Amino acid sequence: MKVALDTSPLVQTRAGTARHIRGLLGALAGGLNLVVRTTVGPEDMGFSLVILALTMIIVGGKRSWLGAAIGAIIFTWLPSWLAVAGTWRDVVYGAFVALAAVWMSGGLVGLVTDTFRLLQARRRSAGGATPTSPDEPFGDEEALLLGSASTDRSTTGSAS
Question: What is the pTM of this model?
């Protein structure tokens, strides 16, 4: 079923468009960085910056652009919010990241999406309908939350 979805022309077109948009945003960010700093060297883009970017994506949610944006907002302001922790700031920061990585494998956006799916399944089962599988989309709300177009998984061709 997944193979049939991944090989459809619509999915390939959207994936290609998404790659182009990501590349455009990366180039724009790099250009703005050059304007602000006027000189850029390898020491400006060190290991800590790479780890920070990965942390933003993991905690926010790696399944959508919205998760990465939420993670970026949180981890941009988190060090100033943790100023009240004093010398324990790094410990609290590390604990937050570790707990988020272990208990929220889909990030904050994944947690919200899973909660929404659970509530929808409970409403359907309480109304007499059979609960759906966790992989079935619930409509436009999920597509808006995940930042992607909704896909109809019930109409798939055979994967030969």
Answer: 0.51
Give the per-residue pLDDT at 134.
52
Distances (CA, A) of 81 to 72, 78, 149: 14, 5, 35
> Is the pLDDT assigned to residue 30 strictly greater than 60?
yes
118-131 in b/e form (b: 16+ CB < 10 A) is: eebbeeeeeeeeee
pLDDT at 39: 74
Residue 76 identity: T
Pairwise CA distance, residues 157 & 160, whole Å: 9
Please give the distance of CA 58 from its chain centroid, rounded to a whole number.
7
Q: Which residues touch 99 (CB under 8 Å, ≥6 apart)?
A: none
Alpha helices for the chain (secondary structure H): 2-6, 9-37, 47-60, 65-81, 89-103, 107-126, 140-146
- The answer to whether the CB of 104 falls within 8 A of the CB of 97 is no
Q: What are phi and psi of 31, to 5 degrees?
A: -65, -45
Q: Report the C-alpha dihedral over residues 88, 90, 91, 94, rounded to 10 degrees.
A: 160
pLDDT tens digits, 71-111:
888 888 888 888 888 889 888 888 888 888 888 888 888 88
